[in-house]
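Data availability excerpt. The first of two example chains:
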Amino acid sequence: MIQQRPQTVGERTDSRIATALFILLVAVILVGFAKNFYLRAWLGSRPLILTAWVHGIVMSAWVALFIAQVAAIARDRLDLHRSFGQLGAWLAFVVVAVGMVTIVVRARLVDPEATLRGLALLFVAFDGLSLLLFGALVVTAWRYRPTPAVHRRLMTMAMVALLPPAYGRLVAYFRHDHVEIIVLGLMMLTVLTFVMVDAARSHRLQRASWIPGLVILLVDGCTYLAQVYS
């Protein structure tokens, strides 16, 4: 049986930071989609197509698995964390695949006569790039499993990449104008908060934080432009 290496003080601190941030990120996702998905029977008003239902169920499964992963780490159950990770790798693939199908179907419903260029613009506007970035970050995090601190940071940033749709719905609870620019601002605040808190705790900028964070902001900038001009 392989002996588990005890965590250092720095690793335990990183773990606590990651746990707190994961709770915040999960809360944003759950609250953002509460009205038109989780509490739809009481509050929902927007019609959902079949692919959106499937996407919501798959995404909920991912969030639930992620909560289980964080709980396993908090309890020093690395054996459970690794077991859940095997399932998580496949589930992340399903999240991306179902999400892409949902975006394409929605784009076709919005503009049935759209050209290939128009569909590409709608794909970006509907957070398609963020979805692909999520998948890329999960794959990268999977490769860095032997380096827990890097793995946790990459997985956190993968969750951050999923936030724009949830932020959009949160903002829409209160107003219906300038939603896109507000969401972009919230994403900038979220990324900068994580990167700066992480840097303050580790006493230096971490590449596993600021590089994915920069890519997330670039993708969100492209999404904003697509939303404005689509």
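And the second chain:
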Amino acid sequence: MAYKKRSDGRKFDELRPIEAKLGVIARADGSAYFKIGNTEAYAAVYGPRDLYPRFLQNPEKGVLRCSYGMMAFAGSGDRVRPGPSRRSTEISTVTQRALSPVIDLDEFPNAVVDVYIQLSQTDAGSRCAGICAASMALADAGIVMKDMVAAVAVGKIDKTMIVDLDYEEEAFEGEVADIPIAIIPSSGEYTLLQMDGRIEKEDLMKALELGKEVCKKIVKIQRETIRENFKRSEK
């Protein structure tokens, strides 16, 4: 079954509509909201603060700790069971690894920066939306960063390369490769690369280049949101 037209009318290299906000959680040190299509992510940052228990402390630099979860009503299908799961633990780990390369915690030995990500609604791309929200929340908290991190899913349905798959496309009856990536725009470094499905090496490289281009659009929105928030805070 050939994939010739997206159900929502987008071009194959087109992102879903994006909405981004800062300062959405009053008592957090930094917070952000990132919506792409029907997937909504909230991120809250607390710290740097003392890390307990003490055996987890790093005397040379601070520690980044990420926690990912979905609200019970957030899933596209059945009700999400509350509490940690294998999936949430895995996404928490890859989120931490995706963000760590841009964060400087050298001045905060024995401390921790906690990032809590919650999805209130999902339609595919949830880990990528969470990473985008977390990157903005870290900036809102004043954490020293060398750049933002932008994330998106790219992939292939049959012979067609696409960006930002939605739930219907992930469940397409045919050959599907779903590839979440995260990129540091200034260096082009990939900090996340996962894949569900099968794809030839040549097509994988094409998908990664396509993802790199659309991540430039995402990081532009992230930066503009931060600038606008900074301007409002100065008034």
